[in-house]
Amino acid sequence: RGVSKHFVLNGGVFGRAKSTVRALDDVSFDVPHGASVGLVGESGCGKSTMGHTIMGGLSANSGEIQFDDPERGRVDIAYADSELRRHVRLNIQMVFQDPNASLNPRMTLADLVAEPLIINKLLPKAEIPPRVAQLLEQVGLSPRYMDRYPHALSGGQRQRVVIARALAMNPKLVVADEPVSALDVSIQAQTLNLLKDLQVEHNLTYLFIAHDLSVVNYFTDETVVMYLGRVVETGNTRTMFKAPLHPYTAALLNSVPRLGHGKATEKRAPKGEVPSAVNPPAGCHFHPRCPYAQPICSTEVPPLRTISAGRQARCHFAGELPLVAAPGQSAI
Ligand code: SF4
Ligand code: MG
User: Fold this and answer.
1) What is the pTM for the complete model shown?
2) What's the complex ipTM?
C-alpha cells in the first residue's frame, strides 16, 4: 500500500546536482492468496525494484507491504525487524531470471538443494537426503543428476534446481523475476507448466515479474502494469488484454507480434523512448508518448481510479478512450 522507493544519485565526478530517482512512486496492488499476479512494464519501470523490496533486499521509503503470515496473521514486512524478516523469509521465496547467477558452480546439485535446508535448520541431518530426492522429483529432475555440477546441466534443468531450492522452504509466496526469459522458447512452456503444477500441489501464490506479455497472458490471473515507478493499470489479465483501459497497456499489447505473423522473435516496443526516471515528465508520465494526451495530462497526475469491478487505471480519460488491443498493429 502506497510503497515508494527513492534512490538519490550524487553528482558524480562532474559535480552535477544530486537528483532523485523515484523507482517506486506510491505503488499499491493486491496479490490474492493462491493467484498468479503478473507485474509488467518496460525495463526501468520499477518491477524488479518492487520484487526486491518485497524480499527485503531493499527497504521502502514509505508505504506498507502487508503479508498474510500463516502463523502470525497479517504483518507489515516493509520495515520488519530482523526476527520477523527471518521468519517471513521462509514463506517468501524468489526465483530469478538467470539460473547461472544464482547457483554456486562448485556445488553439486544435491548440495545446492540441501543448502537452504541446512542453513535454515529445517530438518535433522538424516532427513535431508530423502527430502532432497523428493524435491528433485517434484521439479522433474532425475536422482541420477544428484552428483552433477550446474555446468553439466541445461539452462532449463538449472532453473529447476533454483525452483527446488525455493520449494525446500515450503513458501507461501514465490516472487518470480523473469523466470523463463533466459531460457530457450522450447523450454519456456515446460518451465511455466512446472510452475503451474507446483502452484496447485503446494498451494503457492505467485508474483510473476515479466516483460513478455504472451507469457503473462499464459501464466497469470491478474496483471499490474507499471510505468516509470507508478502503477497505471490493474485487473483480470484476460479482460485487460482484450480491452485495456490505459493507453500504455494498449501500446504494450500492440507491440506484441501476432502469432504466425512475422518472425516470432520480433518485438516492437511502444513508440518513443522511455523517458528517464531521473526527471520523469510532469503530470501523467506517459503524456509525451500518448496519442490521446490533452493539456491536463502534462500538468495533473491522474489518480489510480476504479473504473469497473476489479479494474483500475491511472488515466484522466480511462473508460472514455477508443482503445483496442490489436496485436501487430501499434496504436502509437
Ligand atoms: Fe494519455 Fe492523458 Fe491518459 Fe496519460 S492521462 S494516459 S497522457 S490520456
Ligand atoms: Mg528487471
Assistant:
1) 0.91
2) 0.97
